[in-house]
């Protein structure tokens, strides 16, 4: 619901600051029709709605004349550039306008970047079936239980290498190696050839050669016509190949064997495979394991339910009991390696955790890489932990994490073996996509057959795969925001004001004018928050009050008071005072005039 303040812009001064807006997109929740031409016959559309120009919030649309497939419905955690927002979701307006064609959602892995948006958005798409491998499917179900008012999902578990018919297409899934178990890629058969989406992956290798499992996967593309390859770009600028998970586990084993004090592992809850291996080592070394964090506990419940590993119950302890054991006997698995301010590791680092106190004998192992955009949060976490005297190990100083994304050699291997006619780099910031595209060029993919997308780009393959082009128009792709209990209803103007308040603060003017004469009844009151410290800015305030009096009385005494539009008066005060404050301080606070007739 909008307040009176939000309905009008008369009392805002933006000081000439421009906020770009895509003319072809409207904020989700704006019911104006955003027109995108319908697809022509014998055409395939590939639309990365989100997940390009960023890392996370993955969603890609694959469409032909009859069917639409949605690859991933992810989310991103709140953005420092958008204050007050909990999550950021893909924009589903294009799909909502065509939901009668949406045949399936493919959940490529269990990370929130790929499945986190399902409770918010699946219903808007008509609740199409969600295809996922077993562990991903179970975690989607667990996630959905946190939203009791959401409609149940139609979750369909697929086997590794399984083929299914969906709509008018044969769809083949293939298992991929990742620290998130049961991750997958998808191959959609079309008359123009296969559309291949790799998902996020890592090619498992030994001594530089793909493992037998990966050799089988890659060889399956040998006699197949691949019309278009959509492939993960996050780490393609990194030379060589990623380190193997086996090497990571070996290093973790060495750390756990050699460390004398308590060990605390910070990891993504979705890194189930690695967490299970850490528990295996802890049991082998006769250590006690405490698990802290709701999502971490939920995922470990899935491990037990699926009987992935059966660990002796005697090795697990409650966090409340960790002080009953010697430090060298205790291993803690905790959420927080991404630097989330509400995670268990951050709370402990801030001395705000009710049960875990960081000690100078602790070793903290951050067994995950830094998500793009969270660098400052991770640095803050490391600073806080080091102030407590803890020893910190992370992927930049020790091989305690293997990438979830292919390095350059792995990306090159995928392109060579899948040998696509057309190539679309996805998943990553624009620079990452450009590096990936250049790699494809060096491997023989024609420059005219490569499209570097933006969020919302509509890429079409036409004339039986003869050519590909990117339309000038875009699918709606503005960010959908979860703000409190509302989804997508935080308007652009509200975000602008939050950004300005965060950067330059607010300047509130309270003035009372005589209802008969239009003269100020007294000197205006001024309230400042996040702008200047009033006690040290008396000269500025005196000048501001003189200007406020002049602006108001020049208008109110020039004509009858009852004919004055109070909104226009507030706008004039906001504009003139805003310009004055910008000139004096080089800051642009939100100026809010409150003018009362007495």
Instruction: State Rg.
Output: 28 Å
Low-pLDDT stretches are 1-32
The count of strands amounts to 28
Spatially, the strands of the biggest sheet line up as 8-7-6-3-2-1-22-23
Q: What fraction of the residues are assigned to beta strands by DSSP?
A: 15-25%
Tally the structural domains.
3
Largest sheet: 8 strands, mixed
CATH fold assignment of the largest domain: Metallo-beta-lactamase, Chain A
Judging from the principal axes of the Cα atoms, what is the shape? globular
Overall SS class? alpha/beta
CATH superfamily of the largest domain: Ribonuclease Z/Hydroxyacylglutathione hydrolase-like
The level 1 CATH classification of the largest domain is Alpha Beta
Helix count? 16
Return the average pLDDT rounded to an integer. 85
End-to-end CA span: 30 Å
The proportion of residues forming helix, as a percent range, comes to 25-40%
Characteristic key phrases:
598 residues; alpha/beta; Metallo-beta-lactamase, Chain A; Rossmann fold; Ubiquitin-like (UB roll); 3 domains; 8-stranded mixed β-sheet; 16 helices; 28 strands; 28% helix; disordered N terminus
Description:
- Helix 7 packs parallel to helix 8 (272-284) and helix 15 runs antiparallel to helix 16.
- This protein folds into three domains: 43-240 and 403-462, 4-Layer Sandwich (Metallo-beta-lactamase, Chain A); 245-394, Metallo-hydrolase/oxidoreductase (Rossmann fold), CATH 3.40.50.10710; 492-597, Ubiquitin-like (UB roll) (Roll).
- A hairpin with a 2-residue loop joins strand 24 and strand 25 (486-487).
- The protein contains 16 helices and 28 strands.
- 28% of the residues lie in helices and 22% in strands.
- It has an eight-stranded mixed beta sheet. It has a six-stranded mixed beta sheet with strand order 9-10-11-12-15-21.
- By secondary structure, it is α/β, with parallel strands linked by helices.
- The radius of gyration is 28 Å and the shape is globular.
